[in-house]
Design a protein that fits this description.
8 helices; alpha+beta; eight-stranded mixed beta sheet; flat; 23% helix
């Protein structure tokens, strides 16, 4: 094996040669953390320095890409130079120029086998040899020893000598350059295999003692919100919001300022720490092909190659939140009033996120979880029954909550209590901006029943005719009647979500509000009573038709839908006229078909006449039949003329009726 003093001497030489000229800064600490509900953590570290210095930052491998992407150095009087760290392929790059691989560093026999020609000194088995390495072979030393590695060297006298490499063998590399390479390779391979830590170094320049802040954004567990709402009656309730946060940054927090951000930022990841090699097309070497030269015929004639942007200022804090409702003085032992939070978080509303800064610095060990209240206030909370058609006749019990805090309430779960009765149920609260309302459903209200009955209808309200084109305005109407049976023991405020339909308008006296998918109808139902409300959806459709081509069925439908009796009568008359035109058209077509058949029969007889004797009985029969056909054709022609005349009269009547609309 290689002696340790040689190896570590080589490592020391390499470290001295590669050390930066700047002084190392004192160890820093995490000063502030902003946790985002987008799964990110904005971390600020503080490092005291004096003059020019190198700041060291320890990070896990999965954090390196984010640090390279987002690191901001804030120096009050100095400048930032460069950021350095070992590459992911540092060991491979170091070993690229070595005559051995990382696997060869695992034992002296494998390593010496790759050092052919290198001068060494070995002490093994009581023998000492000096010379240049020729190679390493293996020999079977019996059942007890098994395979033994044998080193062969060329001594200074030209003698080839061998020695077994036994346990406890000491090898000295007598070539200082090769010893340095081995030490460098061992250091690189060791760095690649030591845990998951990476050292990031940042050079700063400046004068005097000062604090430098490093801010970067890395992945972090999503912080969660859980709410407790205690209904105090009278449309008011106490709301407490608790944040569940986890320290997964790899270092303990000691006196860290923690801010919770409820935004949804775009979080991108790019492998900035991994090498990417761009593929290039390979161009062939341009060599002129002159071919095989000809033999000289013997004639005498000759052949003929930024600056970083400062962070945006923090948003101004909003007014203090509404004080929580305190009803504890009303009863000596209230059942379910929650103890007030020691202090609430300072809330601020930004353009795309609400931020909550915890009132006290946080101590939290790496890997630990903390749950802390950050909102404690009074809100508007009305208990309602929410009916949703298609989900059964019983509505769900819900709280209609209005956010009267000073910032958007983050999305989270709610545990709901009645101040006297206790636990009511759980609900989900989506992100709720200031002043907006949300419904939080928590249980099925089996004491209330909502039934719906829908009646569709259509009505033709207007027809306008311009240049023979009719525009018919048809109103489709859908009337839904909701009948609500109330609870026998208490009044209810019932909200019914009537589905929206694209292109339809709603008329309802109970209309309260609307969502992207439904209209909300609010109905007060007395205890033990019933209530009824109607929702009318209307859709206006305008169809255009060429009245000359409008068929009888369409005209009859319009006449039935017409709300104006006079218009309905005109449409009925027009439909009858259209029926007359259709009948006259069929008569003309039938006469024409009969004429075509008679003419075809005449052509057949004419062909037969040419094939029989002129004075024969058959010829006379053919002539008689042709005479009768001529009489029939004359009658058909007269009938067709009369029918065509009637068709023209009917068509003229339709044009007159259309003009009168």
């Amino acid at each position: 094996m290689v002696t340790s003093h040689v190896v570590w001497a080589g490592v020391l030489l390499c470290m001295i040669a590669a050390a930066p000229p700047l002084r190392a800064a004192s160890p820093g600490r995490i000063r502030a953390v902003t946790l985002s509900s987008g799964g990110l953590a904005e971390v600020t570290q503080v490092h005291p320095v004096d003059g020019d210095a190198t700041i060291g930052l320890d990070a896990r491998s999965e954090q390196i890409d984010d640090i390279l992407k987002s690191l901001v150095v804030r120096d009050p009087v100095g400048t930032v130079g460069a950021l350095r760290l070992d590459g992911l392929d540092q060991a491979d790059e170091t070993l690229r120029t070595m005559p051995f691989t990382a696997d060869d560093l695992s034992g002296p026999a494998r390593l010496l086998g790759k050092l052919q020609g290198v001068p060494i000194r070995i002490q093994s088995g009581g023998r000492t040899l000096e010379g240049r390495v020729l190679g390493v072979s293996e020999r079977n030393a019996g059942t007890e020893s098994g395979e033994v590695a044998i080193l062969t060297v060329l001594t200074g006298t030209g003698t080839l000598e061998s020695v077994s490499i036994e346990d406890g063998a000491a090898v000295t590399i007598q070539d200082s350059a090769m010893a340095a390479k081995i030490a460098e390779a061992i250091a690189a391979a060791g760095t690649a295999k030591v845990g998951d830590a990476h050292r990031v170094e940042v050079d700063v320049s400046g004068r005097g003692q000062r604090e430098i802040r490093l801010t970067y954004v890395v992945a972090a567990p999503v912080w969660k919100t859980s709410y407790r709402i205690v209904d105090g009656g009278g449309g008011r309730a106490n709301l407490q919001a608790w944040a569940i946060i986890e320290n997964a940054l790899g270092a303990d927090w000691a006196g860290v300022d923690v801010t919770l951000s409820s935004g949804s930022p775009v979080a991108l990841l790019q492998r900035l720490h991994r090498r990417y090699w761009r593929k290039r097309p390979e161009a062939p070497v341009m060599v002129e092909d002159v071919g095989m030269p000809d033999l000289d015929p013997g004639t005498v004639a000759p052949r003929s190659v930024a600056r970083l942007r400062a962070p945006a200022p923090a948003a101004a804090p909003l007014p203090a939140p509404m004080a929580r409702m305190d009803t504890r003085a009303e009863s000596a032992e209230p059942s379910y009033d929650a103890a007030a939070a020691t202090a609430g978080a300072a809330a601020s509303e930004g353009d795309v996120a609400a931020n909550f800064t915890l009132p006290h610095p946080v101590d939290l060990r790496a890997g630990s979880t903390l749950s802390v209240p950050f909102i404690d206030t009074e809100i508007e909370a009305e208990r309602v029954a929410l009916g949703q058609p298609g989900r059964g006749i019983h509505p769900t019990a819900a709280f209609r909550i209005r956010n009267s805090a000073t910032a958007t309430l983050p999305a989270g779960l709610i545990t709901l209590y009645d101040r006297e009765a206790g636990y009511l149920g759980d609900a989900r609260l989506p992100a709720t901006p200031v002043g907006e309302q949300r419904l939080a459903s928590f249980a099925l209200d089996r004491k209330v029943a909502v039934q719906a009955e829908t009646e569709p209808s259509q009505a033709l309200t207007q027809i306008t005719v311009v240049d023979g084109v009719a525009r018919a305005t048809v109103i489709a109407r859908e009337v839904t009647t909701y009948t609500i049976k109330g609870a026998p023991d208490a009044a209810r405020s019932v909200i019914i979500e009537h589905p929206r339909r694209e292109g339809w308008t709603l008329t309802a006296s109970a209309r309260d509000s609307e969502t992207p998918t439904a209209y909300r109808l609010k109905v007060a139902v007395p205890a033990g009573g019933t209530a009824e409300t109607r929702a009318v959806l209307e859709h206006v459709q305008i169809d255009a038709y060429d009245l000359v081509d409008a068929d009888e069925a369409l005209l009859v439908r319009w006449a039935a839908l017409a709300t104006d009796p006079e218009l309905g009568g005109k449409l009925k008359t027009l439909s009858r006229a259209r029926a007359e035109v259709a009948a006259a058209t069929r008569t003309v077509e039938e006469i024409a078909e009969r004429e075509a058949k008679v003419q075809a029969e005449q052509e057949r007889i004419r062909s037969n006449l040419g094939a029989v004797p002129k004075d024969s009985e058959l010829a006379r029969r053919y002539l008689t039949r042709m005479g009768g056909q001529e009489d029939e054709l004359a009658k058909l022609a007269a009938a067709r003329a009369e029918a065509e005349s009637g068709l023209k009269a009917s068509q003229a009547r339709i044009r007159t009726l259309i003009a009168a609309l």
